């Protein structure tokens, strides 16, 4: 499932928020200049997990661990910085004392802008990687591009020809991966290859030096991920996240568009040989033994199982790959789910990357009917001397687990006495896990929290609060009347994940703090509204429309679903709760205590009725995209809907510098060094769900 992106216009009148709205006085006073154009032991598996499918599957001994950088350095070689995905850089040329002097070093434009049926459907979310002298990236429609890291000049590009009809909720390509073949000579074609997954469900590999497709990989550089999935329905099955590469195995999942039908494409996870592109293994949670090497002839991978739409992280030495799993294809009804779905949905699953067998799993929601997918890439770190993994969730909980066993290293509690509802009370879990170490989640809502731009708006929202079912956290779905889901499906941490300053021992997490206002739709009402699943619609016709779940049929379940993402007033477009709607927080890694917490985002691009107020007051807007932290004591982040790119003091939370972007900055930034100079880069490409302007800009900053 792809990231849950709230489409919000926000109020922006300073007096409405009162004195708590501190002015963000570091904002650039004007819009930007016009840019220039272009061998570990095998882990003990879960009970019931199977071993290798046959003798052809490489063993861990045959896949020696490579020497990979745990953290970024001069390069930014992984989507998450280094192999451990901490989004931390040891570079300190830019620091708290001189960051105010940052200037644009260059601006590169991809040239990929929406045309025709792609209009209104772009959400690129692109994070480049830097390897040697080159920046490597994918555009919204999977155009692979290499540019010089110091000058921004284009080296090459490769367009795999992804059609508009393949766009699911939005055209997104968060990043690419690389693989260097240890058995290849340096000047061999594709000795190092650049690998991406595409919206039309392909793995594409090209030569890092030339951009030429790797002929020996799959079929002329392409592996078809629709193989054994079932009937091709464009937009239903797509890849938006960079694959993980561990010990020469490329591991990928895919996004399955939610809300369509229980009989949806499989959420199978597959591992492919990084040299040949051949299938090494498949993990089909409902048929792990039968389908380990692909399903029997004439059959497909198990339909409707939970998928991994976000980025995995791998432990090269241990040989594990860690999968943040989503929910089942029908999010808001669960009584028809299998035992395997109930076991692995919304769980972090550790697989042996050589065999695809389950080592362990840790579930964050039991019997999830709230669309609380695990959207964040997990982070590898050391915790009290133990190799550990940090897992953020959409509910706001942060867990630290033993990397080898999955055992919690920080306290995990149990919520009990939870509401059961009237729709499927026997299915709703009696208990839910909760982090007792740290959570971004705020207190439950009360009627007094209902809010509006005027007293009349506030009254309307209070009436809606009384109309709804709401019994606090984990209020289950209802059909007789709406229910309030808080946090909403974009609460807590989403695909931007968190950043960890490993030297200072600080976690930096940006988050959303906003509810959804939902209602289950009876099958009769869904039919009356002509809600049709994607396979019955004109190809590509519904891609990119509405927030996820806003009028989805959920065929095969008794109910469809309507989601008001952000619980917006239909007249003003303003959420029915008081700002801030999002923030950023620093957390002490040793204690789990909050060091500082501040709203993220100003009112300058937001206002009632969708009218920008241009007021530079900090209100805290919805935000998607994560942060980068540096040894220079800085947090760099875009994410918010005010189109600002910020540098924040990691010790205090104070904004020290900002620049106005020409389009939305809903992407994870990076920092790297080229020719002895430190650069910071962000993709200003906008986001249609976040209602920020669409662009094709990659902007690099450096000191004069």
From TrEMBL:
Chain intervals with Low complexity compositional bias: 21-37
Cofactor field: pyrroloquinoline quinone
Database matches in SMART domains: PQQ (SM00564)
UniProt keyword terms in alphabetical order: Oxidoreductase, Signal
Domain Pyrrolo-quinoline quinone repeat: 76-680
Region (Disordered): 21-75
One Gene Ontology term, aspect cellular component: membrane
Keyword Oxidoreductase among record annotations: yes
Pfam families documented for this protein: PQQ (PF01011)
Organism superkingdom: Bacteria
MF terms in GO: quinone binding; quinoprotein glucose dehydrogenase activity
Signal sequence bounds: 1-22
Family: Belongs to the bacterial PQQ dehydrogenase family.
Descriptive protein name: Quinoprotein glucose dehydrogenase
Organism field: Lutimaribacter pacificus
């Amino acid at each position: 499932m792809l990231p849950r992106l709230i489409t919000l216009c926000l109020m922006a009148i300073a007096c409405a928020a009162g004195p708590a709205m501190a002015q963000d006085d570091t904002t650039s006073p004007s819009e930007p200049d016009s840019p220039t154009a272009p061998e570990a032991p095998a882990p003990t598996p879960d009970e019931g997990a199977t071993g290798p499918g046959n003798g052809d599957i490489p063993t861990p001994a045959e896949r020696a661990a490579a020497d990979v950088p745990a953290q970024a350095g001069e390069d930014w070689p992984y989507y998450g910085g280094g192999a451990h995905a901490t989004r931390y850089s040891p570079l300190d040329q830019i620091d708290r004392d001189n960051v105010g002097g940052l200037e644009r070093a260059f601006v590169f434009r991809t040239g990929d802008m929406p045309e025709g049926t792609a209009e209104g459907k772009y959400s690129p979310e692109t994070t480049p990687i830097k390897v040697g002298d080159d920046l490597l990236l994918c555009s919204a429609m999977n155009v692979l591009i290499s540019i010089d890291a110091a000058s921004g000049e284009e080296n090459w590009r490769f367009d795999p020809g992804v059609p508009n009809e393949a766009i699911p909720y939005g055209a997104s390509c968060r990043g690419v991966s690389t693989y260097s073949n240890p058995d290849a000579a340096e000047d061999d074609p594709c000795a190092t290859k650049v690998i991406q997954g595409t919206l039309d469900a392909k793995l594409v590999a090209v030569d890092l030096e030339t951009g030429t497709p790797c002929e020996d990989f799959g079929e002329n550089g392409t592996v078809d991920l629709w193989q054994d999935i079932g009937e091709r329905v464009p937009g239903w099955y797509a890849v938006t996240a960079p694959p993980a590469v561990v010990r020469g195995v490329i591991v990928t999942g895919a996004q399955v568009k939610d809300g369509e039908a229980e009989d949806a494409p499989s959420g199978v996870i597959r591992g492919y040989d990084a040299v040949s592109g051949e299938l090494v293994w498949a993990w089909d949670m409902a048929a792990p033994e039968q389908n380990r090497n692909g399903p029997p002839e004439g059959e497909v991978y198990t339909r409707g199982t939970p998928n991994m739409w976000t980025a995995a992280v791998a432990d090269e030495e241990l040989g594990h790959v860690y999968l943040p799993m989503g929910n089942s294809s029908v999010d808001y009804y669960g009584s028809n789910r299998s035992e395997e779905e109930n076991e692995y949905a919304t769980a972090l699953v550790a697989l042996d990357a050589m065999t695809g067998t389950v080592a362990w799993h840790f579930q964050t929601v039991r019997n999830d009917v709230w669309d609380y997918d695990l959207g964040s890439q997990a982070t590898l770190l050391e915790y009290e001397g133990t190799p550990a993994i940090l897992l953020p969730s959409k509910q706001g909980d942060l867990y630290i687990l033993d990397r080898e066993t999955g055992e919690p290293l920080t306290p995990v509690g149990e919520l009990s006495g939870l509401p059961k509802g009237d729709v499927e009370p026997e299915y709703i879990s009696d208990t839910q896990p909760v982090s007792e170490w740290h959570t971004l989640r705020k207190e439950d809502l009360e009627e007094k929290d209902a809010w509006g731009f005027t007293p009349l708006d506030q009254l309307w929202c209070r009436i809606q609060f009384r109309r709804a079912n709401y019994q606090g956290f984990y209020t289950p779905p209802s059909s007789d009347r709406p229910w309030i889901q808080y946090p909403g499906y974009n609460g807590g941490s989403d695909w931007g994940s968190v950043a960890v300053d490993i030297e200072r021992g600080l976690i930096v997490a940006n988050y959303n703090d906003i509810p959804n206002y939902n209602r289950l739709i009876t099958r009769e009402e869904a039919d009356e509204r002509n809600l049709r699943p994607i396979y019955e619609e004109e190809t590509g016709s519904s891609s990119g429309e509405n927030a996820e779940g806003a009028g989805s049929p959920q065929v095969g379940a008794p109910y469809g679903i309507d989601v008001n993402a952000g619980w917006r007033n239909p007249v003003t477009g303003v959420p029915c709760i008081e700002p801030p709607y999002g923030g950023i927080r620093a957390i002490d890694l040793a204690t789990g205590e909050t060091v500082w917490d501040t709203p993220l985002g100003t009112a300058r691009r937001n206002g009632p009725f969708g009218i920008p107020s241009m007021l530079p007051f900090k209100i805290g807007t919805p935000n998607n995209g994560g942060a980068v932290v540096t040894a220079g004591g800085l947090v760099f982040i875009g994410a918010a809907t005010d189109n600002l790119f910020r540098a924040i003091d990691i010790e205090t939370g104070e904004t020290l510098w900002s620049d106005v972007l020409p389009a939305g900055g809903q992407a994870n930034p990076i920092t790297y060094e080229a020719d002895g100079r430190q650069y910071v880069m962000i993709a200003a490409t906008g986001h249609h769900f976040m209602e920020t302007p669409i662009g094709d800009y990659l902007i690099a900053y450096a000191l004069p």
